[in-house]
Amino acid sequence: MNEANSPTRRVPYNIKRFHAAAAFALAAAVKSLASIVTPLNGDFINWAHMASFTDLHLRYLGPYTAPAYILNLPYRLWLLLPVDHPNPGEILNHGVFKPSISAYTYVFAMKLPMIIFDLLTAILIYKALNQITGSEKKSLIGYYLWLFNPYLLVAVEMSGEIDVIPASLVVLSLLLLCRRKMVASGLALASATLIRIYPLILFPLMLIKARRESGRSLAGLSTGFAMGILCTLTPFIYHFKAEIIPILWSLPSYGMGEISWWILEPKLSSNLPETDTSLLAFIYLLLVAAWLKLPRVNASSLMDSMHMALLPYFAFSYWNEEFLLWIVPFTTMDYALNREEAGRLAYSITFTAFFLSMSTYISVRWWLPRQLFLDPTIPILNRIREMAASAVTGIEYIEESITMISRSILAGASAIIMAGILQRNMRPILSGIKG
Q1: Cβ neighbours around 223 below 10 Å, total
Q2: How many domains in the chain?
């Protein structure tokens, strides 16, 4: 028997597959349970109420239109369950949760899309890293890091934030582009953009990659993106007719503050010091110009450029808690891809500092004051809520110092990651200059 085909050579791979499947099942169980017992995030309650409708009339809800329609499907499925179906506002509201089978199944149903896309992102990260590197080890590192990142458990399942869905679709778009499925990649990116506008700033970087492939690839990516946007907007254009122009014009000032980083003055919900939008736009334009100068743009450098496009915003400006989900897939893949070459210890320290400082800042500012969104009717969880409230009281006088230090560490870690990206990708240009 050929040694390469012998059963003994296949066992390690099968064991890895078994471990990966077991880890996936464990993560799914933990995430599902955590989602059920954490119903009290105000943003999630707003999402759930907005999506709880049964009529078929076309609804325009500003930048929340696409998320509302996404969550409407699980709401309709919940209505098919053999349980009571009271008005959602009666069982779940701001500061109010009335525990029952109906209430718990409603919460789980409305968080189900977030759980699915969270788990799907782990698979997409594995496939993207495998496509880029061909390394099973690096792919599995990214897979496990995503599945068992405690930040994601709180930010996705416990918070119930919708941003994991566009983040997952962006990774899907990257994977499809690396596989040269340009139209599908454009459709995936368009879908992400319709949920949150931020993928729009990644589109030019993907166009650079597609153009280096061929004119046909560029046309395919552009066509897929345009089709996704136009097919979604067409019913609204037909329904609202001339009113669609002021509707689209009003989007940046109607809860879509992330648009304003690049094209408007900052309209952010904090009086904390922050970098002016024009500086972020300037950094972005420098990035695009630098990537245009690269002699070749491969899959790894494309991922780096997309990561680099988002890092300055989180390093130097103010953001809402859910926005960080946009960058976590890229930071996870960056670590899995480059930790060996950059030095495992140094990169691990940087990666840990990035997530620890980020989680500390968010915890002090949002998660602890909201008692981790836990169900107060369960005694052990109510005890944790009380501990969270005590912690907030205990750090009241040093809260500003904690947030300043944690954000400074986050900015430093982001700067180190950006320096690594530039060093890896600008080496060919610098070598040419020296030559």
Answers
A1: 14
A2: 1
